[in-house]
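Morning run. Coffee first, then this:
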Amino acid sequence: MTSELVKVRKLQRLGDYRLKLWFSDGQAGEWDFSELARRGTPLTRAFEDPAYFDRVFLEYGALTWPNGYDWSPEALYRDMAGAGALKAESVAA
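And here it is:
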């Protein structure tokens, strides 16, 4: 784990609610976000459409969508690290 704040530096859409993410500390990995489509809350209902999920962009190092939903890069990093989904990889990869 890192003690500094991490940000997502780059993302790649892989389809089926999956993204590959590169973090500011040099770690990278793939993550499945399909749970967003199953939450069923007013803010997450848009994610039932995979095309809407693919509208993700980076804002201040956080995954963000047009409806204002964002995902904390620190929490995402913690979850991915805990699951063993991160490895050292340069952004240029």
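DSSP finds three helices and seven strands in the chain. Good start to the day.
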